[in-house]
Design goal:
- The complex is a heterodimer of chains A (about 170) and B (about 550).
- Helix content of chain A is about 30%, strand content about 20%.
- Chain A has five helices and eight strands, in the order E-E-E-E-H-E-E-H-E-H-E-H-H.
- Chain A has an eight-stranded mixed sheet.
- In chain A, helix 3 crosses helix 4.
- The N and C termini of chain A lie far apart (about 45 Å).
- In chain B, the strands form four sheets. In chain B, strands 16, 17, 18, 19, 20 and 21 form a six-stranded mixed sheet that branches. A five-stranded antiparallel sheet of chain B has the order 1-2-5-4-13. Chain B has a five-stranded antiparallel sheet with strand order 3-14-15-12-11.
- In chain B, strand 8 and strand 9 form a beta hairpin.
- The mean pLDDT of chain B is about 95.
- The chains are: A alpha/beta (about 170), B alpha+beta (about 550).
C-alpha cells in the first residue's frame, strides 16, 4: 500500500490513512471507506447515515459535478491518475475547490509522482499517495521549487502581477 | 520589447536548477530514460536520430541583439556552428550533448531565454505576426497579447498535461503572417463597433494527418476577457479531448467531432461559470506589458530617403532586394527588412553562428535592437531607416544573407526531415535544395512571383505542406522515399488545405515536377494572378497533366 502524504500548511507530512479503498466487488469493511462513484451512488446514502466517513474516487472521465449535492457530507474526494500524463484530474480538483466549494480532502491516487507536486498543490490537492517512493521532504521541496507563479489557481499564492503591484 | 524583471528572472533560475537536478539524476542512473523523457521534453530536449535536439523558445519570434549573440555562442560552443529556425518561430540546435543541456539553459537564462514548453502536451510557445509593432496594417500589437498568454500559460497548473500539444498564434493585421487559421487557437485582433479592441477566436485548425482550417467560434471577444475565454476553451479540451489515440487527441478532432457550433456552446457555457474577475488579467498588469512594447522610439523622418533612392538607382542588386525583401513600415522613413535564410543550395532556415552575430549587430545598430523570426524560417529587421538600407544590404550581402527571394519559389519551408528527425519518413532538405536550384535565376523567380513551396518529411506536417501553394509530403514506400504533391493550400488569411495532385514521385522527379507546374502556370495565368489564384481558377487538371505527362 502506498503511504499517504498530507499537506499541513506549506509542509507535506506522513499521515495515518484511516480510509480503506474499496473496490466495487469487495465486501464492505468496517470503518471509513473510499468508494467508486457508482458504488457511492448505490450505497452511499446508507453508509453516510451509519456514522462512518465516506470518500469517493472519481476517474478522469467522470465529472466531479456529479457529486455537487453530496460534497458537504463527503470527507474525501480521491482523484485518479491512471497515467500521470492524464491531466483531467487537475481540472476536477480546481472545480471542486473553486466552483463547488469543497473543503474536505482532495487526494491524488494512481500514477502520482513528485514531478507533479507543484501542479497538484496549486490545483487544490492536499493529500497524495505517491507511487515513486517520494518522501514528504521531497514532496515539499518539489511543491515549492518555483518562487513565483504566473496565474491564479485554487491556492492563495500571490501571482506575479500581484507581487509586481505590491 | 518586453524586458524580464526580477520575478521573470528568478523563475528562469528556478527552472534551470530544477532541470540540472533532473539531468544529474538521469546521468547517475536514478531515473530511467522512460522516466526522464517527459521531464526533458518539458525543457525542449528531444532525442533525435544522431544526438539530442534542444528547441529554444523565441516568444512571439522576438529577439534582441544580446539574445541573438547568445544563440550564436551556443551554436559555436555546443553545436556544429549553426542553428535552425522552426516554423513556430523557435530555434533548434541539433547536436546537443545531454550533459551540456543544463549549462546551455543557464546561459540562456542569463539573457532571458529558455526552452520552457517548447515540447510536451502543454501550451507551447505563443507565436505572432513577425511584423508586429512595425506594420501599418495592425489594429493592435499582437506581442502585447502574446506576452499576456506567455505568462499565463507558463507552468499552468491545470493545463500542463493536456491530451496533446497546444499551439496559439496571434495577429493584429489582416494579412496573416502567423498562420492563425491552422493553430489550435488562432486570435485575430478586431476593432469592435464600440471602437474597443477584441479578438476573433478561431479554434481547431491544424495540420498533421488531419488538416483543418479552424472555424471561428466567436467573432468578437472583448480583449479584457482573453484569459478567461482561453481558460474556458482549454478546460473543455482538457476534459473532453480524446486521450485514447495520440492521432486523434488534438483539439481539432474534438471540434470536428462536436461541430463548431456545439463546441462553441460548450465553451460559452463554461465561460459563463468562470469568475472572470479572478481569471482575467488586471488592467494594471496589461498596461505594464503594453508600455513595454510602446517604448519604440522612432525618429521623425521624411517619407522618402534621398540616400536610399540614389543607392537604389545605382544598384540593380539593391533594387531587387528592395522589391522582394523590403516591406512598408508604419513610420515614415522606415522599412521592414526580411533577411532570407534560403540562399540557393542552403538548408532552409539554418543560420550560422557568424550570420547570427552579424544580424545581431545589424539589429542593434539599425533596427532599434529588435530582431524577429518568421514562421517561414526567415529573419526580420523590423525597424530599419530607409537611409540605412544600402548599408544593411551591403552587410547582409557580405555574409550570404541578401538573397532577394521572400515569398518566391526558392523561399521554401522545409522541416529537418530524415537528415535529423526521428519521426521523418523521407528527407526534406535535399528536395528543397534541388527545387531552389531550379529558381536560382532571380529573374525567373521574380517572373513567377509569389509561390509558397513547403516540404514535410512526414505526415506530422512540421513543414506546413498542407497549406502550401505547392506542398510536398515525404512518404516511405517499401523503404524508398516518395513525395506526394498537393496544390492550392494557403496558411494565410485566405487559408485552405491543398489537394493531392496524383501518385507520389521519386526524389529525383520532384524538382522537375515543380518546374513543370510552374511552366504550366506561366502558360495559363492571366494578369497579375499568383500561382494560387490560377490554381483556384482552373483547378487541378491542367497541373496534373503537366506533371504526369512529363513524368511518363
Amino acid at each position: 500500500m502506498p503511504k499517504l502524504i498530507k499537506l499541513d500548511g506549506d509542509t507535506a507530512q506522513w499521515a495515518q490513512d484511516v480510509f480503506t479503498h474499496v473496490a466495487d466487488d469487495d465486501a464492505l469493511p468496517e470503518g471509513d471507506v473510499i468508494l467508486s462513484l457508482a458504488r457511492f451512488q448505490a450505497e452511499g446514502e446508507i453508509l453516510l447515515s451509519n456514522s462512518r466517513r465516506v470518500g469517493v474516487r472519481i476517474e478522469p472521465d467522470q465529472e466531479v459535478e456529479a457529486l455537487a449535492y453530496d460534497l458537504p457530507r463527503l470527507s474525501v474526494v480521491a482523484l485518479a491518475f491512471p497515467k500521470y500524463r492524464d491531466g483531467r484530474a487537475y481540472t476536477s480538483a480546481r472545480l471542486l475547490r473553486e466552483r463547488l466549494g469543497f473543503t474536505g480532502e482532495v487526494r491524488a491516487v494512481g500514477d502520482v509522482l513528485q514531478e507533479q507536486a507543484g501542479f497538484m498543490v496549486r490545483c487544490g490537492f492536499d493529500a497524495f499517495e505517491p507511487n515513486d517512493g517520494a518522501t514528504p521532504e521531497a514532496w515539499t521541496k518539489a511543491a515549492h521549487r518555483f518562487r513565483h507563479v504566473y496565474q491564479r489557481a485554487a491556492d492563495d499564492r500571490p501571482v506575479a502581477f500581484e507581487e509586481r503591484g505590491a | 520589447m518586453y524586458l524580464y524583471d526580477a520575478i521573470d528572472r528568478e523563475f528562469l533560475t528556478d527552472r534551470s536548477n530544477e532541470f540540472r537536478h533532473q539531468v544529474a539524476r538521469r546521468l547517475a542512473g536514478e531515473l530511467t530514460e522512460d522516466q526522464f523523457k517527459p521531464l526533458r521534453l518539458m525543457n525542449g530536449l528531444y532525442l533525435q536520430l544522431h544526438a539530442y535536439m534542444l528547441r529554444i523558445a523565441i516568444p512571439y519570434g522576438s529577439l534582441n541583439a544580446r539574445q541573438a549573440r547568445r544563440l550564436a555562442w551556443i551554436a559555436r560552443t555546443y553545436d556544429k556552428g549553426y542553428g535552425h529556425m522552426t516554423t513556430r518561430q523557435n530555434i533548434q540546435f541539433n547536436w546537443i550533448k545531454l550533459k551540456d543541456a543544463p549549462d546551455i539553459l543557464d546561459a540562456l537564462a542569463e539573457v532571458d531565454l529558455h526552452a520552457i514548453q517548447t515540447s510536451g502536451n502543454c501550451i507551447r510557445n505563443v507565436t505572432a505576426d513577425p511584423y508586429a509593432g512595425a506594420t501599418a496594417e495592425e489594429i493592435d500589437d499582437p506581442r502585447v497579447w502574446s506576452e499576456v498568454l506567455r505568462q499565463w500559460s507558463t507552468l499552468h497548473p491545470e493545463f500542463s498535461f493536456l491530451p496533446r500539444k497546444f499551439k496559439i498564434a496571434v495577429t493584429g493585421a489582416l494579412t496573416d503572417r502567423a498562420a492563425v487559421k491552422v493553430h489550435d487557437i488562432g486570435l485575430i485582433l478586431r476593432k469592435g463597433r464600440d471602437g474597443q479592441i477584441g479578438f476573433e477566436v478561431i479554434v481547431g485548425g491544424g495540420q498533421g494527418r488531419t488538416p483543418y482550417v479552424g472555424p471561428t467560434i466567436r467573432s468578437y471577444l472583448p480583449s479584457e476577457h482573453l484569459l478567461s475565454y482561453v481558460e474556458a476553451i482549454l478546460r473543455v479540451y482538457n476534459r473532453h479531448g480524446r486521450r485514447d489515440n495520440i492521432y486523434k487527441a488534438r483539439i481539432k478532432i474534438l471540434v470536428a467531432a462536436l461541430g463548431a457550433e456545439e463546441f462553441a456552446r460548450q465553451v460559452e457555457e463554461e465561460w459563463g461559470k468562470i469568475n472572470a474577475e479572478r481569471a482575467d488579467l488586471p488592467a494594471a498588469e496589461l498596461a505594464r506589458i503594453r508600455a513595454a512594447f510602446a517604448q519604440t522610439r522612432f525618429e521623425t523622418l521624411p517619407a522618402v530617403s534621398e540616400a536610399f533612392e540614389a543607392a537604389r538607382a545605382a544598384s540593380p542588386a539593391l533594387r531587387r532586394f528592395a522589391r522582394n525583401n523590403v516591406k512598408p513600415h508604419k513610420q515614415p522613413g522606415y522599412a521592414i527588412v526580411e533577411v532570407s535564410l534560403k540562399a540557393i543550395g542552403q538548408t532552409p532556415g539554418d543560420a550560422s553562428a557568424e550570420q547570427l552575430d552579424v544580424v545581431a549587430d545589424l539589429a542593434e545598430h539599425y533596427s532599434l535592437d529588435d530582431l524577429r523570426v518568421t514562421h517561414a524560417q526567415n529573419l526580420v529587421l523590423p525597424h530599419v531607416k530607409l537611409d540605412d538600407l544600402p548599408a544593411v544590404h551591403a552587410v547582409l550581402e557580405s555574409v550570404g544573407l541578401a538573397t532577394a527571394n521572400i515569398d518566391l519559389a526558392s523561399d521554401i519551408i522545409a522541416c529537418p526531415g530524415l537528415d535529423y528527425c526521428a519521426l521523418a519518413n523521407a528527407r526534406a532538405i535535399p528536395i528543397a535544395q534541388d527545387i531552389a536550384r531550379k529558381f536560382a535565376d532571380p529573374d525567373r523567380a521574380e517572373k513567377v512571383g509569389e509561390l509558397k513551396i513547403k516540404i514535410s518529411g512526414c505526415i506530422n506536417a512540421c513543414g506546413h505542406h498542407h497549406v502550401a501553394h505547392i506542398g510536398i509530403l515525404g512518404v516511405d514506400k517499401k523503404g524508398e522515399e516518395f513525395y506526394q504533391l498537393s496544390l492550392g493550400g494557403s496558411g494565410a488569411e485566405d487559408a485552405s488545405i491543398g489537394r493531392i495532385l496524383g501518385p507520389g514521385l521519386s526524389a529525383d522527379k520532384v524538382a522537375p515536377a515543380i518546374d513543370a507546374l510552374v511552366e504550366a502556370y506561366l502558360h495559363i495565368r492571366t494578369g497579375e494572378e499568383r500561382f494560387l489564384d490560377t490554381y483556384r481558377r482552373v483547378g487541378l487538371e491542367p497541373f496534373k497533366e503537366a506533371v504526369y505527362a512529363q513524368a511518363d
